[in-house]
Design goal:
Rossmann fold, 2 domains, 5-stranded mixed beta sheet, 198 residues, 33% strand
């Protein structure tokens, strides 16, 4: 049996539903093609799922975001954004000390890159607030989240929004946190608290 790996975004049909994924393994067998997809969210997985408006509004009222550095044209929530679908890459752009909201792509390898960038930009003067999966067993959590100013544990699961339909897209199989990197953070352990936006 031949095994091939796809490292770019791919769309497959699974049980009649389109599934978007990065880093999928395709096993080619005598009887056809089998696809093994690692999904962390049930249903259609997209890297451009949007933060629910009620959660974003509460955070925006508190932090007055000016930039959304990891969005698409349709998922952008702030006036200014680095829209990856138009060639703007927030990982390579200086956030200019502006307050930033980050809902990074959750596909493999992306969260770590974005958490590193959040910490770098906070050390350069930006206040950065990110919506992340709650997973303290990962290297990105230990390296970057533990240097944040504050971690807010959410008592309910976030229902992400499909930017195409503007309707709830899926129920995650994990809890989420709001991570706040304040300018100059990293010298002390983060403050931790339970926080409900509703």
């Amino acid at each position: 049996m031949d095994c091939r790996e796809c490292r770019v975004g791919c769309v497959f049909v699974r049980n009649g539903q389109s599934v978007y994924a990065h880093n999928v393994r395709v096993l080619l067998g005598d009887g056809g093609v089998w696809v093994l997809v690692e999904l962390s969210i049930r249903g259609t997985m997209k890297d451009d799922w949007q933060t629910p408006p009620d959660l974003f509004s509460v955070l925006d009222a508190e932090f007055n975001f000016l930039v959304d550095p990891c969005c698409t044209t349709k998922s952008k929530l702030c006036l200014s954004g680095c829209t990856i679908d138009t060639g703007s890459d927030g990982l390579k752009t200086d956030w200019a000390g502006l307050p930033a909201y980050v809902n990074p792509p959750y596909s493999r390898g992306n969260i770590e890159k974005w958490c590193e960038k959040c910490l770098i930009e906070a050390r350069k003067g930006s206040l950065v607030v990110a919506l992340l999966p709650c997973d303290c067993s990962t290297s990105w959590w230990q390296k970057y989240v533990m240097q944040a100013y504050e971690i807010r544990f959410l008592p309910r699961r976030v229902r992400f929004i499909d930017p195409e339909t503007r309707k709830p897209a899926g129920a995650p199989t994990f809890s989420s946190v709001i991570v706040i990197w304040a300018p100059g953070c990293g010298g002390a352990p983060p403050r931790c608290k339970s926080w409900d936006w509703k």
